[in-house]
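Researcher: Please translate sequence to structure tokens.
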Amino acid sequence: MQKIFNLCFEIEFYLKIAISCTIVQQVFYFLLNTVELNFITEVLLYWLVGSISFYCIGILIEKRIKSNDVLREKLTTRVKQVKKQPFPSFTLKGIITGEIKALISALIILYLAPEVHRGNSLLLNLGWFLMRIVAADFCFYVAHRLLHTNFLLKIHLKHHEFRDSTSFVAGHKTLIEYIIVTITDVLPIFIFGYDITQLCAWTVIGNAYNLEGHSSLSIFFVPANFHDLHHSDFKGNYGIHGFWDRVFNTLNPLTKKPGIIFPVSLLEKIIIKSSIEKSVDSR
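Model: Translation complete:
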């Protein structure tokens, strides 16, 4: 029974990403389907959507949600406490450097990746996003686990300066790690091809779950302290979420966040509680 719940738990995460991406893709399709986009316009659009959503979502989490004591207490998933570490202030130089890297990445990705127009077909787009998240999770798992080997660990240490992480730790990495992580994220695009509306949707939702995953909160996408444990213990939990860690036996025991937003965890809690009560009553 527990294995079934664990599998459903991971499937729920994948489906939530795929469905959210599909909905956002429909919005972008509605806005862009009558607009003629050349290569440069697509690059600028992809870059702007990624950059604007990154800062907007991060600020929303850090300055709005975390500043509300009730919400912060309710949504916190971190169980293992670590020393709080304030994230360094943003500098103009840092922002400009980050945006240059993002723009160059967008240019290279769209230049090399095969473009496939899929329109607004819900089934095709849902399938693309579902395959995309599963494949991206696997690619990230492999790269992230390699970054924790002795040979490559030095590249990754900057990201692990923060154990009590904030949302923006998601973007706190060395240039080499940025390149490696970007490559792992775009590999599925070369396998499945891309539609610009799909890429824009993916970058918005990708930023959302990545920032949430580093925030120590469980808001909508993140159903456990999965990545918190990785930052706290500095081992295990190498994937975007736990599916591939379960497959390769590198999963740290995690605390699931039950609630109506996370129905599998809620159902698991109810059944376990009911089972315990029946066991007590039968004695």
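Researcher: Any highlights?
Model: Residues 44 and 141 are 29 Å apart (CA to CA).
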